Amino acid sequence: MNHLQEFMESSIRANVQCYELSEREAEKYIGEVIRKFHPDKLSGHLSIGHESTSIALEPWEFSYSKKLKDEPLFIFFEQRDVNKNKMACIKNGKKLCSILEQAYGMEYFVTNQNVSFLLAVNWYEIEGIGEITNLINELNKSSPDE
Fold first, then answer.
1. pTM for the whole thing?
2. What is the pLDDT of residues 49-70, one digit of tens each?
3. CA angle at residue 104 from 100 to 105, to 5 degrees?
4. Extents of the domains making up the chain
5. Average pLDDT along the chain
6. Quick one: which of 144, 120, 142, 146 has its CA closest to 132?
7. CA distances in angstroms from 36 to 10, 13, 45, 58, 131, listed in the order given
8. Helices (H), 15-146
């Protein structure tokens, strides 16, 4: 099973509305993200690297999305093998972590419709670049309980 299949099945278990983009749509969207933000690692240990701001994955893994805007978010995974050019859109980005709580665990990237930011979530941290930087800085100063 690829990460997209796991994500879609998890969205059903979480009762969160999302849909899968066609491979062609995903390839175009992912290409735009890569050209704009130049993430360091697109497979293995996903990473944005340069000019990004980050927070530790713990304790934010299943709660950070509650702090995001209520907007559609686009999620994609490592860009190799069965996960290449696979992308989902969740209608309400605040509910992203509800889906991931139902999944077995995976690294992924997140952007919005305007590609105004990029998040990379790996086993250790959540990295952000673009318009999301201020939110990441705010999360660094708070806790999920606040």
1. 0.95
2. 999 999 999 999 999 999 999 9
3. 65
4. 3-140
5. 95
6. 120
7. 29, 33, 20, 28, 13
8. 23-37, 57-60, 96-100, 133-140
